[in-house]
Amino acid sequence: MIEFRGVNKWFGALHVLKDITLNVEPREVVVVCGPSGSGKSTLIRCVNGLESTKDGDLVVDGHRVGDPATDMTELRAEVGFVFQSFNLYPHKTALENVTLAPIHVRKIARSAAEAAGREMLARVGLADKFNAYPSELSGGQQQRVAIARCLCMRPKIMLFDEPTSALDPEMISEVLDVMVSVAEEGMTMMVVTHEMGFARKVAQRVVFMDAGAIVESGTPEEFFSNPKTDRSRAFLSKILRH
Amino acid sequence: MIWQQFQSLIGSYPLALRGLGMTVALSLISLVVGTLVGFALGILRTGGNQLISRAIGVWVDLIRGTPFLVQIFLIFFILPELGIELDAFTAGIIALSNLAACFICEIVAAGIRAVPTGQVEAALASGLARWQRMRQVVLPQAMRMSLPPLVGQYVLLIKDSSVVSAIGLTDLTRVGWLVVQRVPNGLLVFAIVGIGYFVVCYPLILLARRLESRMGAAHGEVQL
Amino acid sequence: MLENFSFRTIVEYLPLFGHGFLATLWLSIVSFAGALAVGIILCAMNLQRSRLANVPAKIYIDAIRATPLLAQLYFLYFGLPRLGIVLPELVVGILALSLNSGAYIAEIIRAGILSISRGQVEAGIASGMTYMQRMRLVVLPQAFRVTIPPLLGQAIVLVKDSALLSLISVSELTRAGQLLASDRFMPAEGFITTAACYLILYYGLKGLAALSGRWLGQQSVRSRT
User: Which residue of B has its CA nearest to C114?
Assistant: First the structure.
């Protein structure tokens, strides 16, 4: 579904992705973790072309990313992206936020889009917040609207960029619960997160990155109980200490 | 014919230089006076005395609310009626300095207000006196914030000095007006006048932009 | 001295000031509409990636900002006839004000657009919107709110700048003051009345700015408890 083959990327002189090779199967959930600055966010931002790659191949759902022949807007409509900072549109209500792209990108009739939007918002537990503006919602509620906004596009793939790291601790679980339910329905997901409980529960694979390279990759069981490298051991000891 | 006009224009270069000199003199003197008075007013505006602060606020509003041309006419024609004799140059300096002082007052006051109260509290806690707090803690931080708009204000001042030509001062704009009576090519004459102002103003505009972007970077606003 | 300040003369000239007030008001409105059009075009050019479009816009904006309006006004007033274009003074004045204010408005709009955070644009990109869709649905509606207060500030500047049109003998507010001053040798009466009329316009626009500020503030924190 998502295939990296020898992908490299530079920010100026900084080599941020080093020879990445990674294959995500349909319906697979892959958690990407690693210290800050390891390139994990850059990695998933490449998947929908928010970042461009330098060389190597990146094929998403049969489309080559970065190929001039690929219609990126079409591809992006198939790939949902949840941001660390939510990025809800502040001038639109929750319902308007989730129906904007279906109406204008998918060209779905407004009434149908709104019906689907209400259903999705109800599904993430916000049936009473249709007409609320983002500024009236808590961080956890905003992130759930953002997830509903992706789901309304009926995507084939969903990408999550540290979806809980901007949240207060008591709001993290409400967002993770929604993500778990999405995963259990068989969505193909790449999730950048340090929430190891989530990884254990739904991920088929954990990918550990450091300094722009994939250092280790395996099932959550293997990775947590028996990390193979010093760097992953050091990383795990830091995030599991608390 | 164009060539003749050129020769005639080149012939009037002493006049043009005098005009440029007048523009620079007007701007420079009122820039210095306006800055000094403006800073004093700005500090008083944010000071504790409500009455003084209000009075300054009303004056600044009156000046900001009326065209500079009308202010010049008022000063030039009315002060003599009050028994104060003054020539056009003095009237121009008074009007420009007053205008600059009012705008700079607001810039400085905004800068002072933007200093976080925690800073003043820290200075209070370490026992600094009122004036020390202002001089050591508040003003240096307010200055950094005020610098870009201050430079922008200087550009406005130089441009506003052109309005003083309306009471007969021979500045750069007035020279253009005089020359165009003899050489009937307004495009050429006022393009040259424009270049004169551009040469003075543009470096300041660039400086203001640079200061602004540097401040933005210092405050960490430019991040993805 | 001012003890013989003549209110009677002012009353006598009131129709002239009324006419001047309305003239200033409507020529400012027309010029502001023109300036908005100029500003939007300049800003659109300036935001293009192509140098062919953005370099001319940048040069124009810098040239306007680095030279006084009065010189620009004379440039058109004395220059246009040279090109065989003879226009009434009023039209020249409106043209000068629009071309001048347009450059400042272009910068205001640009700042508004650039103030929208990168994340908003990325959210649009990620959901598959095209450039035009992102602009129309995400960026411009938000930028519009940000630009209203500075646009009203620019309107205040424009109203005051319009006083310069009196120097090419357009009959407006300042011209009315000049007439009273020179006909009756009463500059105090003439220019104080003129100033008072401008203050009415100034406080009107300032009130509008405060109102819009409050309205916009309400929109962004609507009923947060």
Answer: B222
Q: Is residue A100 within 8 angstroms of chain C, CB to CB?
A: yes
Within 77-106 of B, beta carbons closer than 8 Å to C belong to 77-78, 81-83
Q: How many domains does chain C have?
A: 1
Provide the CATH number for the domain around residue C84. Answer: 1.10.3720.10
Kindly give the pairing relationship between strand A213-218 and strand A188-192.
unpaired
In a domain, C140, yes or no: yes
Task: Answer yes or no: is C21 within a domain.
Answer: yes
21-50 of A, contacting C, C-beta below 8 A = 48-50
CA distance C159 to A193: 56
Interface residue B185 vs chain C (CB under 8 A): yes
User: What domain range includes position C68?
Assistant: 7-224
> What ipTM describes this predicted complex?
0.89
Backbone torsions φ then ψ of A188, nearest 5 degrees? -80, 125
Q: CA of C225 to nearest chain B CA: how many angstroms apart? A: 26
Cβ within 8 Å, pair C70-B81 = no
Give the contacts of A29 (CB within 8 A, at least 6 positions apart).
Answer: A183, A187, A188, A189, A191, A202, A203, A204, A205
Of residues C98, C96, C101, the one with CA closest to residue C79 = C96
Q: Collect all residues with Cβ–Cβ distance below 8 Å to B156 and sequence separation of at least 6.
A: B103
User: Across the strands, what pairs with A82?
Assistant: A160
pLDDT by 10-residue block (mean), chain B, 224 residues: 74 86 94 96 90 95 96 91 87 96 96 88 81 85 89 94 93 92 87 93 92 66 31
Residue C157 CB neighbour total at 10 angstroms: 16
- Test B197 with C71 for CB contact under 8 angstroms: yes
- Report the candidate in C133, C113, C112 with the shortest Cα–Cα distance to residue C123: C133
Q: What is the DSSP letter of C135?
A: I
C63-83: pLDDT as tens digits: 999 999 999 999 999 999 988
The two structure tokens encoding residue A119: 């259903």
Query: What CATH number does the domain located at B2-218 have?
Result: 1.10.3720.10
* DSSP helix/strand/coil, B144: helix
Rounded CA-CA distance A126/A137 in Å is: 10
Residues near C1 by Cβ (< 8 Å), separated by ≥ 6?
Answer: B81, B82, B83
10 Å CB burial of residue B67 (0-12, 13-18, 19+) is buried
In a domain, C66, yes or no: yes
Q: C1 in a domain, yes or no?
A: no
Q: Are B173 and B162 in contact (CB under 8 A)?
A: yes
Whether C218 contacts chain A with CB within 8 A: no
Instruction: Inform me whether the C-beta atom of residue C142 falls under 8 Å from chain A C-beta atoms.
Output: yes
Burial of A211 from C-beta contacts in 10 A (0-12 / 13-18 / 19+): middle
Angle between the N-to-C axes of helices B50-65 and B88-114, in degrees from 0 to 180, rounded to the nearest 10 = 120
For the record, the structure tokens of C116 come out as 């929208």
Q: Is 0.90 topped by the overall pTM?
A: no
Structural tokens at position B107: 């810039």
